[in-house]
Amino acid sequence: MQVLALNWLILSATGSATAMGAVVMLQALPVLLLGSWGGALADRLPARPFLIGFQALRALLALALLLPGGVLPGNWLIYAVALFSGVISSFEGPVLGRFGSALVPPSALGSALALGSVLSSAGRIGGMALGGVLIGVTGPSALFLINAVSYVAVIVALLAMRPGDMRELSAPSRADGGVVAGFRYLLGQPVILVVLALSFVLGSLGRNYQVSMAAMVAGPLGGSSGSYGLLSTVFAVGAVAGGLLLAGTGRSTLRVLLGTGFVISVLQLLSSLAPNVLGFAALILPIAAGAVIFDTVVSTRIQLDTREEMRGRVLATVGIVSSLSGIVGAPAIGWLCDTLGAREALFTAGAVTTVAAVAGGVALLRLKGRALSWPFLLGRPAEQAA
């Protein structure tokens, strides 16, 4: 709801899409610059007190948006809130990831992360829907207030948890607790590096559908704003379905990672050939489901295949890669749509991600001492963790 209100506020004040892009950039930039230090702190310090503090700070930032505009000249208050939100995210992300893995046994981590993805997607759907109604009745201020109050529930939930029931994760030694030690460890994990590279390529060229959907609707599909709304809803439903499917099976394996990455890449390529909005929507649904499965399996495998005392720093790297894929991918897809056309852009991006999925799969299987074969793809051999 606050994202919706913040975008509306800056767009109403400036009439500039560039200003809106600056707000998004200010939230992403600190993750790139500070994420590694956030990961190092996550590995060394207790998570729950920090998470409670982060929620309190986020509530204060939401309340700050209710202050009169004269507190800071122009739109600097909005920019300041966006920047500080990004700073909090750079530390909160690794801490939350490490904290989550302490709440469930390793065998349930995949299902737990998938359920978290479902709740996140449902929150986005419900928040955007309710926010879209309220903003027309009350203006953006009510959305900021609701967001601020909502953090009280999160803080209460954190306080109600029983620390004695949580798993105690290993902490790094003083010599291994720094940022450099984290990078050194990561460089010695080729499987994780290949997974991160695969995540970056598929995330940048295969996950920025908000841009390509708009270009397809406004261009070759000849749709309207209602068509774009329909596609956005279908995408959200697909995301929830993908999370529920993975949560039910709990199969966060190498085979699922490679298979899903390849399938969603091929479907993206095929979506460029869709004759109409309904045909495009039929392909968007499994793409959204597959994207959630792929991202969740990446997060699960990286957590399970990383030493506990290094987990915060590796998760911080995942956050950095995710931010980079958004910063690089959205403009790249937009440029391809403007230069080649919407269909050609989707086809090109789908072809690149398909090749990347195959190349990444071959590299991962070689690192694991496996061969790319039909029996492996069909699931006949015994399961092997990534």
Automatic annotation (TrEMBL):
Keywords: Cell membrane, Membrane, Transmembrane, Transmembrane helix, Transport. The keyword Heme does not apply. Residues 1-368 form the Major facilitator superfamily (MFS) profile domain. Pfam families: MFS_3. It is found in: Cell membrane. InterPro entries: MFS_dom, MFS_trans_sf, TM_effector. This is MFS transporter. The lineage of its organism: Bacteria, Bacillati, Actinomycetota, Actinomycetes, Micromonosporales. It is a multi-pass membrane protein. SUPFAM superfamilies: MFS general substrate transporter. The chain crosses the membrane at residues 6-29, 50-70, 76-96, 108-135, 141-161, 182-206, 226-247, 280-302, 314-333, 345-365.
